[in-house]
Amino acid sequence: MSKAYSEEGQHDRWTSLNIWLHWTIVVLIAVQYLVTAGGMEKMWDAAKSGSNGSGGLFTLGNAHIAVGSLVLIAAIIRLWDRFAHGRPPHPDGAPNWAHLLAKITHVLLYTFLIAMPIGGLLGWFLNSEFFAEAHHTAAEVLIYVIALHVLGALANHFWFKTDALRNMMPGRGR
Predict the structure, then answer these.
(1) Rounded to whole angstroms, how far apart are CA atoms 162 and 91?
(2) Residue ranges in the chain modelled with pLDDT below 70
(3) Which family does the entry's similarity section mention (predicted)?
């Protein structure tokens, strides 16, 4: 039996693909918030007013659409990998409430990472104010879900003294 398998037959580490996709999504989300989001909002406003806007504006807006589409693809592949190849068990040493909170946080993260790009695409291509506003509101909420996820990883590492954070680092996959 390989070293990546525990005695119960459950993998004790994430796959290398899952870890790579995790950090790829982190970078893509950072790009969305720090670089392209303002361009998309300005491009939306320009399109609504019938203006052509500037080339740089449309470059940023289109980059936002492309990066959001990559987030959607990466999240779907990561979710598939999680179900197809298993996930490590929640670490020993963390209390049950922390396991429950981790599960809720992960469901919220995947929901946002899949629904937000779809909502954004529907908002843009259907010219739907409803989907565009839902996408924008979800982006504001996602920040808090990400913060909860990061706090959970840090709590596992520093407070509960588990390997959960260490096991998500590049080079630690199976």
Answers:
(1) 6
(2) 1-10, 52
(3) Belongs to the cytochrome b561 family.
Closest CA to 72 of 38, 34, 133, 24: 24
Tell me the per-residue pLDDT of 114-152, one tens digit each, with 9 for 90 and over: 999 999 999 999 999 999 999 999 999 999 999 999 999
CB contact at 8 A, 72 and 16: no
Residue 11 β-bridge partners: 5
Cβ neighbours of residue 80 closer than 8 Å, sequence gap 6 or more: none
> Which pTM does this prediction carry?
0.89
**3-state SS class at 146:** helix
**Distance separating alpha carbons of residues 82 and 62, to the nearest angstrom:** 30
Q: 42, 40, 46, 47: which is closest to 66 by C-alpha?
A: 40
